[in-house]
Amino acid sequence: MATRSRRRTAQARAALLPVLLTGALSLAACSGGGTSTPSSSGGAAGKTLVMDASFTLKTADPGRDYEPTGLIIGKALYDTLLTFEGSDVTKPVPSLAESFEQSEDGKTLTLKLRQGATFSDGSPVTADDVVFSLERVRDLKGNPSFLLEGVEVAKTDETTVTLTSKTANPALPFILPNPALGIVNSKVVKAHGGTADDTDKAEQYLNGASAGSGPYELESFNAQSQVVLKASPKYWGAKKPVYSKIVLRNVESATQKLNVQRGDSQVALDLSGDQIKGVAGGLQTTKTASANVVFLLANQDSGVSKITNNPKVVEAIRKGVDYQGLLELAGEGSVQAPGVIPTMLLGALPADQAVKRDVEGAKAALAASGVSNPSVKLEYPSDITLQGLSFQPFAERIQANLKEVGITVELAPAPVATALENYRNGKEELGLWYWGPDYPDPTDYLAFLPGKTVGLRAGWKAGADKELEAAGDKAAATIGDDARKQLYTDIQTRLNASGPFVPLIQPSQNIVTAASVTGLAFHPVWTVDVAALGAK
C-alpha cells in the first residue's frame, strides 16, 4: 500500500467500507445490454451503463482525489497531458499535449499543447489552465501532491508548457497520465474558490459539477452510494462516448456477481477468483494479475521487536511461506510476486527468480538465528478486501506455514483505521499489506528502501544498507530503459536476499461484463477507462 502524505494507504485505503445497495436502479438494464433511450448527446448512443464496484472514494476534486474509485471517475471527467493506450503502461502517449520531449539529463520535460481541445463549456484548454491545474495539485498538499514534488511548472508560450525537476526525473512522463493530474478549467475553478495553494475552497463545487475537458461530465456524486456521469455534448475528441450515462454503484463483491448475472448491471469490477468460477454463460470475463503486490514486512527496529530484526529469522520466514498455497487461496489468474515491482512494469524480476518454499532451509535459518521458540504478532486489516479477497485466510495460512518451521504467529487483525496507524508509524512487528502503483514506473518502488516510505514502516532506517541505498539513488536518476531495468532487477534481487520484505502474490483482477460491452482493458492505475467502453 502506497502512501506518502499520500494515498494508498488510502488504498486499504480508506475506511470507506462497501455499502450494499439493495434493489436495482430504475435506469439499470434488465437485459444486461444497457438501457436504450433517444439521445443526441455528443454522439452517445443513448445507452446507460451500470457498473458495480466496492468504493474507495472520498472526492471528485482531481486536486485531492487519490482513491481507486476516484481515479476511475477522474479519468472520465478530466483529460491529462499524456495518457496510455489500453493496458499498455510501457509508453506514455499524447492526450492534451500533442507531443512531448524530455531532456537528455532527465530534468526538463517540454510539452506542446494540442490545439482545438475544449472544456465541457466549450472554452479552449490553454497553457494557463495547465499551469494552474498542475500547480494546484502540487501545492494543495493533498494526497496526490507528491506526484509533482520538486517539479516547477512554467508557461513557455501560448502552446508550450515546461516542467523542470531539480534532479533527473525519468518517471515524469509516466506520472502525468495519472487522473489526479487532470487539467481543470482554471476560470471556472477560480470562480468557485479555487487557488493553487492550501487556501483552496473549490472541492465542494467539484463534488457537484465537473470542470474538465473529458468525455464525461459529473451529474451526481455520493461517495458512499453512487456516482452518475453524463456524456459531454461538446467533447472535443475524435472518439465520442458510446454511453450517454454511466452509473457507478457501491456494491459489495458477492452482490456484484448477482447483479451482473441477472442484468441489473453490465460491469462488475471486484469479483474474486472463486466468485468468477460460478459466473453464468453469456458474460465476458477479463482475468489478469493485478498490479497490487501483497507482502509481509518484518520490523527491523529493535524497539519494536527483538525477533523480526534478526536477519536469520527473516530468512526463516521468507523460506517458510508456502507461496503456492497462497496462490490457491487467491484463485485463478493470481501469480506469485517475484519482487516488490509487479510483473507488468519495467524492472520486474522474472518469474523464475521468485522465492521458493524451503522448509528445511527455513528451520536451519531459524536455528542459526539463536532465537528459541520465537513468537511474533502478525497485524493486518480485518475489514477490507483486495480484488474480492479478505486478508484473514492468507494470515491463517502464513500462521500455519511458519508453525511448521518453528515460529509461532499470533494473529492480530484490526479495523483498517487502527491497523493503518500502526503500519504507517512503523509499530508492527510483522505486517501483512499490499502496495499498488502510484504510477507505472519502477521509481515508485524505491519506497521500499531504507529511510523511504515503506522502508520506515518496517523500521528500516536510512543507513541500514548504504550500498542498496546508493543503488536506489543511481536508479532514480538513470535515463534509458535498458540501464534502468538492470538497476531495478539488481535492487530487487538484493531486497529478496536480505531485505525485511517478503513479496507474496499479485491477486487476480477479475472484471465481468455483459456480452454487449466492448473495449474493456484493465489498467493498473485507473482500473478501467469507462470512456473507451463500447456496445454491440
TrEMBL record:
Transmembrane feature ranges: none
Signal peptide: 1-28
Gene3D superfamilies named among the record's database cross-references: Dipeptide-binding Protein, Domain 1, Dipeptide-binding Protein, Domain 3, Periplasmic binding protein-like II
Organism superkingdom: Bacteria
Localization: Cell envelope
Keywords, sorted A to Z: Signal, Transport
Pfam families recorded: SBP_bac_5
Cited PROSITE patterns: PROKAR_LIPOPROTEIN (PS51257)
KW Transport (keyword) present: yes
InterPro entries: Peptide/Ni-bd, SBP_5, SBP_5_dom
Family named by the database record: Belongs to the bacterial solute-binding protein 5 family.
Record's protein name: ABC transporter substrate-binding protein
Species annotation: Sphaerisporangium corydalis
Taxonomic classification: Bacteria, Bacillati, Actinomycetota, Actinomycetes, Streptosporangiales
